[in-house]
Amino acid sequence: MLRLIGVESIADLFKNIPPDLRLDRPLAVPGALNEIDLSRHMVELAAKNRSADDAPCFLGGGSYDHFIPAVVDAIGGRSEFYTAYTPYQAEASQGSLQAFYEFQTMICQLTGLDVSNASLYEGGSSVAEAVLMAMTVTGRTGKVVIAESVHPEYRKTLETYLANLVPRVETLPTPHGFLDPDDAKKAIDDTTACVVVQHPNFFGCLEEVEALAALAKAKGALFVVSFDPISVGILKRPGQYGADIAVAEGQCLGNPMAYGGPYLGLLACREPFVRKIPGRLVGQTVDRHGKRCWVLTMQTREQHIRREKATSNICTNQGLFALRAAVYLAAVGPQGLKETAELCTRKAHYAAQELTKLPGVKLRFDRPYFKEFTLAMPKPVPALLSRILGRKFHAGLPLGQWYPALAACVSVAVTEKRSREEIDGLVAAYEVELGASGHRHDLLSKPGERLLA
Amino acid sequence: MLRLIGVESIADLFKNIPPDLRLDRPLAVPGALNEIDLSRHMVELAAKNRSADDAPCFLGGGSYDHFIPAVVDAIGGRSEFYTAYTPYQAEASQGSLQAFYEFQTMICQLTGLDVSNASLYEGGSSVAEAVLMAMTVTGRTGKVVIAESVHPEYRKTLETYLANLVPRVETLPTPHGFLDPDDAKKAIDDTTACVVVQHPNFFGCLEEVEALAALAKAKGALFVVSFDPISVGILKRPGQYGADIAVAEGQCLGNPMAYGGPYLGLLACREPFVRKIPGRLVGQTVDRHGKRCWVLTMQTREQHIRREKATSNICTNQGLFALRAAVYLAAVGPQGLKETAELCTRKAHYAAQELTKLPGVKLRFDRPYFKEFTLAMPKPVPALLSRILGRKFHAGLPLGQWYPALAACVSVAVTEKRSREEIDGLVAAYEVELGASGHRHDLLSKPGERLLA
Amino acid sequence: MDKNQSTELLFEMSHPGRRAHLLPQCDVPVPPAAELLPPDALADAPPPLPGVSEIDLIRHFTNLSTRNMSIDTNFYPLGSCTMKYNPKRHERMAALPGLANLHPLQSDESCQGMLEMLWDMQNILAEIAGLDAVSLQPAAGAQGELAALLVAAAYFRHKKEARTRVLIPDSAHGTNPASAALAGFDTVSIKSNARGLVDLADLQSKLDDRTAVFMITNPNTLGLFDDQIATITGLLHKQGALVYLDGANMNAILGITRPGDFGIDMMHYNVHKTFTGPHGAGGPGSGPIAVRKPLIPFLPAPLVAKTENGFHLDYDRPLSIGRVRSFFANVGILLRGYCYIRTLGPKGLRDVSENAVLNANYLLSRLKAEFDVPHGDRCMHEFVASARNLRKERKISAMDIAKRLLDFGYHAPTVYFPLVVPEALMIEPTETESKETLDAFADALIKIKGEDPQFLHDAPHTLMLSRPDEVKAAKEPVLRWKP
Amino acid sequence: MDKNQSTELLFEMSHPGRRAHLLPQCDVPVPPAAELLPPDALADAPPPLPGVSEIDLIRHFTNLSTRNMSIDTNFYPLGSCTMKYNPKRHERMAALPGLANLHPLQSDESCQGMLEMLWDMQNILAEIAGLDAVSLQPAAGAQGELAALLVAAAYFRHKKEARTRVLIPDSAHGTNPASAALAGFDTVSIKSNARGLVDLADLQSKLDDRTAVFMITNPNTLGLFDDQIATITGLLHKQGALVYLDGANMNAILGITRPGDFGIDMMHYNVHKTFTGPHGAGGPGSGPIAVRKPLIPFLPAPLVAKTENGFHLDYDRPLSIGRVRSFFANVGILLRGYCYIRTLGPKGLRDVSENAVLNANYLLSRLKAEFDVPHGDRCMHEFVASARNLRKERKISAMDIAKRLLDFGYHAPTVYFPLVVPEALMIEPTETESKETLDAFADALIKIKGEDPQFLHDAPHTLMLSRPDEVKAAKEPVLRWKP
Ligand SMILES: Cc1ncc(COP(=O)(O)O)c(C=O)c1O
Ligand SMILES: Cc1ncc(COP(=O)(O)O)c(C=O)c1O
After folding, report:
1. Residue B200, preceding peptide bond in cis (omega within 30° of 0)
2. Do D92 and B34 touch (CB under 8 A)?
3. Residue D23: its chain B contacts at CB < 8 A?
């Protein structure tokens, strides 16, 4: 090969790099591992973690231990999908393109809105993208109103995205676990680009979405909702209660928790905003023989054409996870989604009912909730949770890290995957670690002990 | 559908089954489980086993914990392979057919013989098939001579297959861990269809294959060898030392131990016997446009054509595992197979060297061995092994179950996957449980304790 | 998207030194193997396997895979093979390290979960059979046949009865006579009658005290339930002989009728057919056998047994025939079968058969006006059409139709089997296919029937090859690549 | 074998009541959800998702998959995308439950292994960059750009310098200006000179104290290493501005030269390119950023920190810009990158770049006599050919060539990018392809060049479709199926 190129050595190929800029030593990275040793190393790393398989997971806050049907992994494992690039060449990418078109359609079905893009990164930046979109749509740059009950990391992301742009982010407190429409009403004005809520919110509580939608509309602001895709198995869909843009974290749709990513940002909106939508869009067309097919479309919105005037800077998105979500949604179908939501609701309510029987444990908010809820604890929270982890339960999230006023509170999430036995075990673990005397101790393994050695 | 069929109910479709023969109750099998509950149930069953992932596996005897490269699972997981049937329709099965042709070629390369079939069930019945084939080839029905150092379950299988046929099975003792050619010489006569040995044998020891081949040949008997496919990375191939038929257990070629199956029977032979070979054969040909392609061939040997006169009754064989073996062999290549064999040899010898330093522990046979070896123990074997299992080592096979004379012996196998640390841990566990005082205790976890709780 | 469709072999793309898998350095302080083993045992060089890089290996086999039809990509109505959908959850469960990474000879105490599953499976299969005990050992249907016939032989030997013959209907699968011969029996063929069932007269004429076993397939290979079965088993039993069921067609009768209840003494299952072991392009299978009480002592060993101390492998079976393979069984396939049965439960199992029979009858009804179906207008889970008239009138053979179907994206039915039907097209849709798929398939068959004969002889037209020369393949066999 | 090649949509095959996944019965004694939640929050019916059976679902998506080209099936020389082989062992490792089933908010004590890996990855990426600290947070390259530019903005704000402009070469990727705008900067385009490098005069003319950042891609999108880099970074630094590296092309320089060593202050990686995150038909990616010491306080939080008590997430970063996403990062892609880097080691990483550059130069040498390659006859890991002459002389466009390549089983190169080359064909073979593949690809390109123009306009000819009407798609958008 070198001969044909006309050089003596590979080094000659790098002669454009000024010698004084070259690295004159090997990189200080660990030595090469063969597959056997790499596998051993990774298994050892994995063994230093306590996964949801080792300890039933009652953590929520935007990532949930929902069940992933095997069909999702089977299709997600097809290497023609996962080793393809963004479907730029339509003829060589109909598999992905059709799947994404189906994904877009199902996201429309899920949201009750008209248009969905082909994915964004994850739930947090999707909120930011929705707000940026609302700013363009409304032409308003005064402020963005957001409820404090929106995921704290989503709010932080929004603030970061907007740091150097004109609009101000106004965060409305939610001391009772939801945004009071009266408070919202006071905040929304003619310069407000949008009102952002999460429903069910970070505490698991339902928001007054219909009232809030009306308030936003009345002032010409868009109503942006971050929703839980599982919840719409029983709850109204964003389009049904007046959302203009719906965004969501799609992890729950067949994607592993994976310590936080890759996940899947969903974004759907009403028809008139379609040319302002960020990210990829797949559209249907015909080929030169008139055959139905699909292509990436409306690319003039995007960075590779529009550059600094693009609707977003996003390029690589989350194709594989959009595919997985499409498989998940098609696998569960309407009835399965409904049953999943139903099971989450009932199991969460059962867990809340049993946990609040423990002395000193109370529901912090008097609001209807979906699959997670906030408990006030009679003992210091982080230490309590750490001790219960010793009993092999991921027992809940300490809320103090985000809400100092809720330092005594724990958020507990329950999915359809949690059995009654696991919930009862959790309650027993709380009981013991709260020092309450009860009858549930026999449900427990001793701290540090495996169920099966 | 019923209307078109012209019946009122599904029950009408079963009216040919006499009513008194019908089952008038539901089957007494457990109730239906959905996917979540099934998964939980299977995970619970799995947790009641101590797998090679939980305790380093030093067990051999025909099934080995070799490393399975990820590429093997990736290709074995392609559903076009695993959900296809036997490639009867060549046009719709070129994927499998070409892969099996490549498999056959690689088995020829591995054995140094001329022809390989497309797989048999596993190592034991492959020995029986080889013997049946030898009977047809030689036309001899007097006896079959087999060494006691052949896998006891293979010998049992052979005896079972031959139970109602004419030839007698003569088993030659191997008190020194191998078949003494002098003993063989006495046994082989003009009525002997074949001589069967395993090399390396069940004890891991090498046989005097060249001498035995010559003895068989001298009497017109075929020389049948059951070999270890990994061993030929460094050892001579069956064709090189005069085997007429080579058979093997192909589990070691990229297939999981899976509590004994499915595995992969290999069978290769010299060219002149090709029309007597059992099982499927894939051959190369051309299609009507002259294009190279592959088909199942020489089917007139087989049961679906020849019925009671077929060379074997085999129909379904082990297609998927032949594919996996082909991927494995192509992945490791000549050099990788050599290195694997080399590592097995050295690690086994290291383990033997260290274990025999323990008081009272001795190599039982004074023979060269490949990846497993036989130790005489100073303490009752089953209890010893059970205690070491408590320290999380599958420490060896108790030989007394098959060889009463070896009731005090343990067979230990070491693959390339075992690290020095694991071997040292095994030695330490033996040391402690043999009650020897030593310095290795710190290498050990306490009995019953997980390395990581 | 495998546009090259190259048939390049691994060997042709091999380059010395390329490899797809690297091994560790040796970490133990012992000399190289060459110093540990006798020189005359060592090869000069390793086997001349191909050397390929990882990307080329993966691309090669991935592209090869797309040249197969398979259940996951195509309707695959291969009669007698029960090509039903194989649920993906089974693959996930079978891969659990606590199930996949068990050594077959590890101690019983260390694999109680596995033994529990296998013990359950023994009982479940006995219940579905209506028989008394099950050996899970045989690796496939054919090996089940062999094992059961060896059991029969041992049984009669034990009873000191010299019975040398196995009677087999002419419609039976080839493995039946092959297994009988291998078990040391003489085989006697029994005719089918006009209805496609056992010709009772022929059976009676051949039945005597030399008869050890009558092997029946019921529903038989024509897809018909032999309603004479009680008479047949009665006749055999009166002669002191046993009746064996080839259980390949159990998919039609799960929970509806049980072999034991209709007089069967022994049978095999094809777990890879009835209970969704993926067929793997020709295996692995699993062929457990179920028997009546008097035969239990002769079953292959070990069986799984249960005591108050848990489960163990019971080798203490002095009358056992021995074993037909090493190790316990094709556990990986049994495990999938177990998952399947546990997913379905009693009602679900019955639904399987009801829907399999419904689908087959629907397809039969769609086709019977257009194609000759010699044996009646009802069937169980499959039926056999014949192209004999098409052949006579328009020189269109069963093979022509089979090949042309491939162009439509359908795998062909089984052809030229059973042997009792000329130009047979044996169609088994299975319960997992939808009505739309059946309709589209029927439409295709009807369309094909009207096509130009020469066009059909040349089919398929859209695949990467057409009509390989099988005669050449058999006459001048090329069974391996050579440098 | 997907012979139907039907474009039936899931929705068109949907039947009410069909489903592919069953859920458990409710096992807790609480009333139905309708009694637990306020009626006005509840929907009348669940979303109108399709209802399909499991077999139809699997067949649908399995068949769809075969309508893609992909690295595993085809050579995929898509310039700027680094479509190298993605080792299968990474997929296996990423699926380990102890890594895949971790909740992002579980306590640090319960995921020490994960934190260790991420901490290592921070350090390794810093070392490869020659920079001082790394945030793994950004989800892809574009988000890395945004995050880094926000860091720059915060840095200057902290220093109380009002710098409003980001300078970007005209050959840059579209995400650069888009990210700069999103970060609140004005963008200024810098011309390329005749050599395809930064036009220093233009740069100097636009550089002033309003300049916050110069974003450079080096090697640039023409596949050229800008040998003026020291001068450039010197100029910028003298103005008090920062230099950002778009690290999309890191594959060319691993272990050979380090951005920090050639004056870069901040950069992003595309782990999904350089370090083999499978591209997933458009993501996920992972876009960590590396920065010089003064910028560390402004990095997004959290970072992984190590103390004698082990690893923890460090949120205590008062000057941090905040975060650009929820949760830690695209850990699944980082994990694959980690496996990759650990497999290669120092020498292996350098080999990657050497071989990537060798392969690209080999292909360039094979093609440069036949195709117009505007920018020289040497390249780094990729090069950009132009069809401008072909277009002028024979009306053959870059798109024609791209489409025709599909017929040969090759994915097309990147076309019409970078914008500075008319009729661009941007070819990046990567190091994982063999010489044989490169030769066959070169042969195909040379053959295509000589083909009939109309034949090329109509290409591809052998795929299931050809030349979709993109204008129609954009003008009359149909973005979802409707009943
Ligand atoms: C009717 C019948 N009997 C027996 C068999 C043999 O079963 P197996 O292929 O599992 O050995 C088959 C399968 O092809 C069959 O269809
Ligand atoms: C040169 C260059 N810069 C930036 C990007 C953006 O990276 P990502 O797609 O990961 O957001 C790309 C990828 O397309 C690229 O090629």
Report:
1. yes
2. no
3. 34, 36
SS3 D306: strand
- Is C142 in contact with B316 (CB distance < 8 Å)? yes
pLDDT in tens, A361-399: 999 999 999 999 999 999 999 999 999 999 999 999 999
SS (H, E, C) C171-201: CCCCHHHHHHHHCCCEEEEECECCCCCECHH
Q: Which atom of ligand 2 is nearest to the CA of D80?
A: 16
Long-range CB contacts for residues B361-366, cutoff 8 Å, separation at least 24: B361/B430, B361/B434, B364/B177, B364/B203, B364/B406, B364/B409, B365/B176, B365/B177, B365/B178, B365/B203, B365/B205, B366/B176, B366/B177
| DSSP letter (8 states) at residue D299 | S
Rounded Cα–Cα distance for residues C237 and C207 (Å): 11
| Tokens 């009729």 -> residue | D423
Q: Which residues of D touch C54 (CB under 8 A)?
A: 85, 87-88, 432
Contact partners, residue C130, CB within 8 Å, separation at least 6? B23, C258, C259, C260, C261, C264
CB proximity C51 to B under 8 Å: yes
Query: Which residues, listed in sequence order, are joined to residue A171 by a DSSP beta bridge?
Result: A146
Contact present, D274 and D246 (Cβ < 8 Å): no
| Other beta carbons less than 10 A from residue B169's beta carbon | 16
Q: Is the pLDDT of residue B448 over 60?
A: no
Bridge partners, C186 (sequence order): C165
Q: Using a pLDDT cut of 70, give the percent of chain B over it.
A: 96
Dihedral sign from CA coordinates of C48, C49, C55, C60 = positive
pLDDT confidence band for A452 (50 / 70 / 90) = very low
Within a 13 Å sphere around the CA of B134, how many CA atoms are in the beta-carbon half? 35
D1 confidence band (pLDDT: 50, 70, 90):
low
- In the three-class reduction of DSSP (H, G, I as helix; E, B as strand; rest coil), residue B171 is classed as strand
**Chains with ≥3 Cβ pairs under 8 A against C?**
A, B, D
| Average per-residue pLDDT for chain D | 96
Closest ligand to Cα D218: 2
Task: Kindly give the distance from the C-alpha atom of residue D338 to the centroid of ligand 1, in angstroms, as a whole number.
Answer: 48
The reply to whether ipTM tops 0.95 is yes
- Judged by CB atoms closer than 8 Å, whether chains meet at C58 and A79 is answered as yes
Judged by DSSP in three states, A404 sits in helix
Given the DSSP bridges, would you call strands D289-291 and D133-135 parallel, antiparallel or unpaired?
antiparallel
Q: What is the pLDDT of residues D178-236, one digit of tens each?
A: 999 999 999 999 999 999 999 999 999 999 999 999 999 999 999 999 999 999 999 99
Q: Specify whether the CB–CB gap between B36 and A340 falls below 8 A.
A: no
What is the model's pLDDT at position D177?
97
Cis previous bond, A200, omega within 30: yes
How high does pLDDT run on average in chain B? 95
CB contact under 8 A, C74 and D462: no
For residue B434, pLDDT beyond 80: yes
Section D344-353 average pLDDT: 98
Mean pLDDT for all residues in chain C: 96
Q: A247 Cβ partners below 8 Å, 6+ apart?
A: A120, A123, A126, A127, A129, A130, A224, A225, A226, A227, A265, A266, A267, A268
D228 residue type, one letter: Q
At residue A52, the pLDDT reads 97
**Is B77 within 8 Å of A77 when comparing Cβ atoms?**
yes
- The verdict on D112 touching C (C-beta cutoff 8 Å) is no
Assigned token pair, A263: 């996940």
**Strand extents, DSSP E, C102-194:** 133-135, 165-169, 186-190
Let me know if B323 is exposed, middle or buried by CB neighbors in 10 A (0-12, 13-18, 19+): buried
Quick one: tokens of C206? 């051949």
This prediction's pTM: 0.97
Model confidence pLDDT, tens digit, residues D104-119: 999 999 999 999 999 9
